[in-house]
């Protein structure tokens, strides 16, 4: 996945805009990432 940009919404949440492929077709993906409690790592929330 190619990351286009990111926006820190709060200290613990971030929006990430990226481009990926699904079944051979490029798609734009906007995902919310949350910060892990005991670290500096951000993980994506499940798609819904």
UniProtKB/TrEMBL annotation:
<feature type="domain" description="Transcriptional coactivator p15 (PC4) C-terminal">
    <location>
        <begin position="13"/>
        <end position="48"/>
    </location>
</feature>
<dbReference type="InterPro" id="IPR003173">
    <property type="entry name" value="PC4_C"/>
</dbReference>
<dbReference type="GO" id="GO:0006355">
    <property type="term" value="P:regulation of DNA-templated transcription"/>
</dbReference>
<dbReference type="GO" id="GO:0003677">
    <property type="term" value="F:DNA binding"/>
</dbReference>
<protein>
    <recommendedName>
        <fullName>Transcriptional coactivator p15 (PC4) C-terminal domain-containing protein</fullName>
    </recommendedName>
</protein>
<dbReference type="Pfam" id="PF02229">
    <property type="entry name" value="PC4"/>
</dbReference>
<dbReference type="InterPro" id="IPR009044">
    <property type="entry name" value="ssDNA-bd_transcriptional_reg"/>
</dbReference>
């Amino acid at each position: 996945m190619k990351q286009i940009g990111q926006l820190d919404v709060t200290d613990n949440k971030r929006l990430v805009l990226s481009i990926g492929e699904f079944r051979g077709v490029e798609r734009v993906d906007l995902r919310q990432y949350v910060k892990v409690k005991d670290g500096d790592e951000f993980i994506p929330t499940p798609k819904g």
